[in-house]
Amino acid sequence: MTRPHAQGHTDPTVQPVPASVVQQVDAADTTLHNPQWAVVSLGANLGNRLETLQGAVDALGDTPGIRVKAVSPVYETEPWGVEPGSQPAYFNAVAVVRTTLPPSSLLERAHAIEEAFHRIRDERWGPRTLDVDLVSYADVLSDDPALTLPHPRAHERAFVLAPWHDVAPDAELPGRGRIADLLRTVTREGVTAREDLELRLPE
Questions:
Q1: What's the half-sphere exposure (Cβ side, CA atoms, 13 Å) at 176?
Q2: By CB count within 10 A, which of 8, 76, 128, 185 is most buried?
Q3: Sign of torsion, CA 142 147 152 158?
Q4: Tens of pLDDT along 82-99?
Q5: Strands 131-137 and 36-44: what pairing?
Q6: 200 is catalytic
Q7: Choice among 49, 98, 109, 128 that is catalytic
Q8: Catalytic pick among 11, 58, 62, 133
Q9: Annotation marks residue 128 as catalytic
Q10: Exposure string for 174-188, b = 16+ CB within 10 A, e = fewer
């Protein structure tokens, strides 16, 4: 969990959610449609990176059917697959959510949030205004190219495993094992905790 933080930028496409809907979503934690735990990774290396990550967290929290239960510390990460120094470093974080949305709808919402922050997908290793990736959903295993679960590269990425471990040290990546064990098998080179930065839970 995180301590309070100053109000950040929010998803410009999201309208305020009526109180009645918020109450229903809160109730969904225990009563509606078998709510599930899911893990979402966030990354940005263009613009105001911290503000963008906070906006993504807020946008998730503004979505009926999603409650953000934990937000990790922020990590600064050197970009993958490119010449050193050719792109700004990423800020990365992980959000743990409780949701009544099915995986496909949660992924659609992730893409909508990316688009709201002007995500461009021109090149595989290009810079990103915002990445919102569905890392895992309950114990679901899927090799569907449209929705592979868990995320096919999460087990080898310290910038996913380290922040996830910070907020859920006993968590497991379905089909791969305990996060703590996976984290010991990957390098943390170029992945640095930014203790001076913080994301807040949605109000």
A1: 25
A2: 128
A3: negative
A4: 666 668 999 999 999 999
A5: antiparallel
A6: no
A7: 128
A8: 133
A9: yes
A10: eeeeebeebbeebee
